[in-house]
Amino acid sequence: MTNETGRIFREAWIAGVRKHYPGEPKPGYVTPWEETPEWERQAAAAVSGQVREFVSVSDGNTSKLTREQKGRFVALCWIAQIHRLIESPKPGYVADWAELPAWQRETDADVFEAIERGANS
């Protein structure tokens, strides 16, 4: 996965956090790409690639998915990457969709839509 695909994910994540997070987000939530830990960059690039591939194999019909469906896809792909990259992840890193706070669900949907726009352009 390229840095560019991961960067798209990260920039969409930061924008979503700034939009949806109640109050002041933790600094780690809005850390710029250049300062993001390597494992997180790898996960972001992989998930971005998975979304792009999903859009491609769906012939662009992902536009018909609901925001929740889009967000769930990002969240599930992220969980798989966390298990791949971290031996004993924190429970919050691998929380199921229903356990995620509303701001994170909205941000995951924003991430999908940002990657989808790039894949369709």
UniProtKB/TrEMBL annotation:
Entry protein name: Uncharacterized protein
Q: Which organism is it from?
A: Streptomyces hainanensis
